[in-house]
# Entry
Amino acid sequence: MSTTVLPSYDDVVERYAPVIGLETHVELGTKTKMFCGCPTDFGGEPNTRVCPVCLGLPGSLPVANKAAIEATIRIGLALNCSIAPWSRFARKNYFYPDMPKNYQISQYDEPLCVDGWLDVEIVGEDGQPELFRVGIERVHLEEDTGKTLHVGGATGRIHGATESLVDYNRAGIPLVEIVTKPIPGTGAKAPIVARAYVTELRDVVRSLGVSDVRMEEGSLRCDVNTSLSPAGSAEWGTRTETKNVNSLRSVERAVRSEMLRQAAVLDTGGRIVQETRHFHEDTGDTTSGRSKETATDYRYFPEPDLVPLAPDPAWVADLKAALPELPRLHRRRLQQDWGLNDHDMQSVLNAGAVELIEQTVAAGTTPAGARKWWLGELSRRANEAGVELSAVGATPAQVAELQKLVDAGKLNDKLARTVLEGVVAGEGSPSEIMAARGLEVVSDTGALTTAVDEAITANPDIAAKVRDGKVAAAGALVGAVMKSTRGADAKTVRSLILSRLGVEG
Amino acid sequence: MADVTRMTATEIAALIATGEASAVEVTRAHLDRIAAVDDRVHAFLHVDTDGALEAARAVDAKRAAGEELGPLAGVPVAVKDVLTAKGVPTTVGSKILEGWRPPYDSTIVRRLRAAGTVMLGKTNMDEFAMGSSTEYSAYGPTGNPWDLGRIPGGSGGGSSAALAAYEAPLAIGSDTGGSIRQPGAVTGTVGAKPTYGGTSRYGLVAFSSSLDTPGPCARTVLDAALLHEAIGGHDPRDSTSIPAPVPDVVAAARAGASGDLTGVKLGLVTEFSGEGAEPGVTAAFRDAVDALTKLGAEVVEVSCPHFQYALPAYYLIAPSECSSNLARFDGVRFGLRVGDDGNRGLEEVMSLTRDAGFGPEVKRRIMLGTYALSSGYYDAYYGQAQKVRTLITRDFTAAFEQADVLISPTTPFVAFPFGSRTADPYQMYLADLFTIPTNLYGGPGISVPCGLSEGLPVGLQIMAPTMADDRMYRVGAALESVIGTLTPPEL
# Structure
């Protein structure tokens, strides 16, 4: 472990200017793999979703998946890229056992989509939204590799392992690589711009319906490039590439941590080594991987097994016309529909709740009702469990049903929380849980009147005080009724007690 | 009944169709012939006796059931060991794939089965189709039935020798730089390289993806055309397969057999008619050209100035692609694995496996290609070779404006003695001097016997524009109508 004392972040950004860049891989959600007919579903027994093509058996040949090409072009269009009238696949040659052919079919100097941009929004120092335009260098299509499992060692890493097993189920799944241009000028905001970019990119890809873009399942993967140069310098510094950045939060932490580390190196007169670094979720640090100074020669050349791609311009125009509303504009419209100010909208965004609230509203509740649950109780639970809000265990439909029950007076706030607990625990829909746990607000006045009368009979002294005008004493009777009915509406109970005792409320 | 092994595929198919012979009888006759001569010829790496008899019985059962049979039903065929056949050993002539039984059929083999042909087995070849003599086969060379001390050509020497030795009436080869045509020429048989993309590469173990073309070998032009028709046509499993019907090669072969070439312009490539070929080869070629002229053909001289760069361009493009294609042979998933004793790391095991599994010519080409593709050299080698390829294509396009087909000797020399060209790789590479341009262009080419030189066969090559394969069959059949088929001495 490094014992270097890191400078403070404020100090770093005062003296150094960061330049960041992001390389993002998106696993497409096509039904079949990139170059064969094998299914792409996540999971599955090892080596069950394979065929001669994705195993790279001698003689087998790839055939490009049209759906994957279409998805890539749509991503490119959504990122304002030009779609190349002619592009090619290329072979990237290197030996690694999780790559069946010992070359990866990718794209090199002739990618499908080039030269675009994505506008990302962050909250400025004044609390107002601030827009950054991130340049997109290229969007290209390639195939994923298999996965290697090292067994017999203590760490699961290759060191100390007795055997290595390879699962090729993932081999050949279409991957879209989206590479930004270098992003200068973000200053202290570099980490949050990086995070905002990946978030926005994720939302764009999701809105296109071409991938489930789940970082935790690896269908969205991100490498973060970071460099520092002395403030005011015209030249950029040497960059490092940080891998293993597996969540949005990690994107932000990785940039920040790398900025601090590089500043410490530069401060002591050191030199930044161009290398791959690994981010560690637990410590928030990066450690050195392989050096890129002796660059691997991938011997790229055009893939002779595949004909060039020449997308019909009319088809591309149709795809462009059919693009959905961009998430940023969509959010703006939602903000207006929901009547939220910037601050409240930002809270929704920060919680990752936009889509959840949108779907909950679509399921028939008010925006305020939907927002209350997702930002309140459910956010709290998600934080406690350390999961994304979408993985908290409640669906928009369930939350909508819950709120409707509250609106109908069948649940009070306290009961609703209990029901929600059941929902999150997977006990069923709110109404099923109400029935199973007997949690309904007692609104049958016949039953309630009986309960009130019983309470009055059982507490003659208190009843007498109330009759004498000491209305405050009625609280004890309310409590008794609430207890016996396990959840009547307190206000109703109180007025019923007062009216039975002939006192005006 | 006459000896079926001496018959053409067309004759055999007719016998089976009329019931004069059963497919099983025909198959047994060929298996017997193989048993009798192949220990000397060594055309086969694997004889699939059970599979062949089973396929033959299926044809006989179909006939018995009154089902319609295709034009090649029941005809035996030998398949170059470069194509996968499910469950049948496929070695590509290499130790690195010894014992590998592929779990799938190549498209060619699938179509052969669908046509009712009977696959006798897999034929010998230079390792990974790299060579012109079968001397680079890891399993020993094949003898030329005309003289067992001489090479049968390569890489598909096993397929052509099987035809010349009457072990099979039909065979499949693959042609990357001449591997169908040159063996055809030196064994006195017919070998056709279809238009690139006209026959599927799916299941053809790749040497050079942009050049490899599977195709038919036979003893007559019509038989080759029938086989071409059976295996050709679009295959959705091969991205480079042309989505168009096979040109009517069978009709063209029948038309050519009438011996009338009136109105056909033959282009004589200036650059191939001077030096470079043995005098005997040149003499036989000139006689054949005269014969074609007498059939009504007109001879025009065409210049293809860039053909002289074809050989060097080929020896950059093919090794480059091979260096990548052969990377998958690493001992991890299939085939040979050497040195995995629990003490060695992955890279070392891969390295030992490749060192033990690949022969010297394969290693030479992997190294050449690795170098040609490496950063800093790519433009000067691979990039430059691709430019030459474009220029050669232009030469062909211009030449076909003046002539319907181009003709040349197939190969500069007749079958040479074993060992005479292995010391200097370049001397071996020269065998493909006349065939390589066609591969770089992607057009079709056929070698048809055109005479003898010192008692050994000489082939004439006919080259046609892409997807005009029918033209070469017409001219080839016309030549055959004059020359006839060549019969080697008895083994």
